[in-house]
Amino acid sequence: MTNTKSVQSTSKEQVKGTSTLELTRRRFLRSPMAKVGGIIVLILVIVTVFAPFFAPYDHNQIRLGKAYVPPQPIRFIDHEGRFHLRPFTYALTPGFDPDTWQRTYLEDTSRRYHLHFFVRGWEYTLFGLIRTDLHLFGVAEGGSIFILGTDKLGRDLFSRIIFGGQVSMSVALLGAVVSAILGAIIGALSGYFGGWFDMVVQRIIELLLSFPTLPLFMALSVAIPVEWPPLGVFIGIIMIFALLGWPVLAREVRGKVLSYREEEFVMAAQALGATHLYTVFRHVLPNVVSHIVVVLTITVPDLILAEGALSFLGLGIQPPLVSWGVLLSDASTLETIGRYPWLLLPGIAILVTVLAFNFLGDGLRDAVDATSTV
Predict the structure, then answer these.
(1) For the chain, give me the number of helices (H) and strands (E)?
(2) Suppose 324 and one of 65, 135, 210, 346 were both cysteines; which one would form an S-S bond, judging by CB atoms 3.0 to 4.6 Å apart?
(3) Same domain (yes/no): 195, 122
(4) Which residues pair with residue 96 across a beta bridge?
(5) What range does the domain containing 218 cover?
(6) Phi-psi region at 127: left, alpha or beta (left = phi > 0; alpha = psi -120 to 50)
């Protein structure tokens, strides 16, 4: 019995001697789904940041002779049953189905094109600074490697999904960051000062939260002038997301600040002559950073879905920019989906991304909440 008590006391002493960040990390790593979500998010961020490197083709390059090519298989075994160490694709020969009046593509088994890594292709400028034509993979000239097929203009869908992820995730992340900054500042000031200021802020938050989210996004996006360039619409969508996204975080931060403002470290800062704003930004807000990060992570998938819905309806991102919602608009009819089901693949990208961010956010929330109760 004595040994058990000593082990428990030693365990408690070890927990007390461990930093909050380390405890959060340990609890996060205990969740398999959180780790899976974090790994997927990391992969998505790397792929979208370096989108031109991972894309085998220019996402806006039109090839009318390759319209609606189905996903092209990468093979290791040829038509004679022989195994090849280096993967390859066959050449495609266009045809026509007289029954369905659809264009068809037959594999020409007499021409193989092997897959190569770190190949030279179309030129691009990485981060606006580095001009190069290096790509992760590709095939020799004359062949093709349409992993996910092509759209109605013969544009490579795999490349367009990668570039679409770059835009969709940028809109969601930037919108979430701006809304987090606004929500953190407004929520902290509201909780710290209280009184009439807190009452006014809370009534505004309740008013904004009382409206359905998607219709409100649609109403504000319609207000964006049609003559704006695509980049202007991109920035406008981010501002709309930030404007409507801060109330949730502001309420979360306010609740934390209400519990912190009577703590000894806040009263000590005031006793030493610190101003209210200095106390809020130097002593109070740093203690809620972990909760801000958690809410930020959970907000991103909501904004990805909102951007996809707006762009699908033609109210969000506009061509020549491409997002997952813009890509899904090509599969807006049952006839198109029935004939070319691979056009729905951008929806799978949205689903995977949303689930990954949700797993990551849930893991961070559980780790932070559990750490705060230790």
Answers:
(1) 14, 4
(2) 346
(3) no
(4) 103
(5) 37-49+161-372
(6) left
